[in-house]
Amino acid sequence: MKWLDQIKWDAQGLVPVIAQEVSTGDVLMFAWMNREALEKTAELKRAVYFSRSRNKLWFKGEESGHVQTVHDMRLDCDNDVVLLKVTQLGHEPGIACHTGRHSCFFQSHQNGEWVATEPVLKDPESIYK
């Protein structure tokens, strides 16, 4: 597929991916995709990432139920970063982070420290069984 060939994959065959909530503009998370994950994401209109720690495809929400519906896929000017515009499903407001928060970017640098500035919406122990 020609559109996949235009991506500058890294040495491991991966591309960085940012998931952004379409309704709010919030950056929800960062992950990786290989060619198969990106192809499946385009086909299913659902975020499918590549888990480096498990060395396999990771269908977002397969364990937690916090699925990401994909509305738009964008490629940056250097063809080496993908942006997904998503709706985060599974909880209101949507939980994207394994810590039970809306966004993985919940820590703010304040006075020389990282401070959690977003609440835990659901206890992770109750999400992952």
The dominant shape is: globular
* Mean pLDDT across residues: 93
CATH architectural type = Roll
Sheet of most strands: 4 strands, mixed
CATH homolog superfamily: Phosphoribosyl-AMP cyclohydrolase
The CATH topology assignment is Ubiquitin-like (UB roll)
Kindly state the number of beta strands. Answer: 8
**Structural class computed from helices and strand pairing:** alpha+beta
Task: Name the poorly predicted regions.
Answer: none
Rounded to an integer, what's the Rg over CA atoms? 15 Å
**Topology as H/E string?**
HEEHEEEEEEH
Looking across the biggest beta sheet, what order are the strands in? 2-1-6-5
Number of domains: 1
| Binned strand content | 25-35%
**What is the helix tally?**
3
First CA to last CA: what distance? 38 Å
What CATH first level would be assigned?
Alpha Beta
**How much helical structure, as a percent, in the residues?**
10-25%
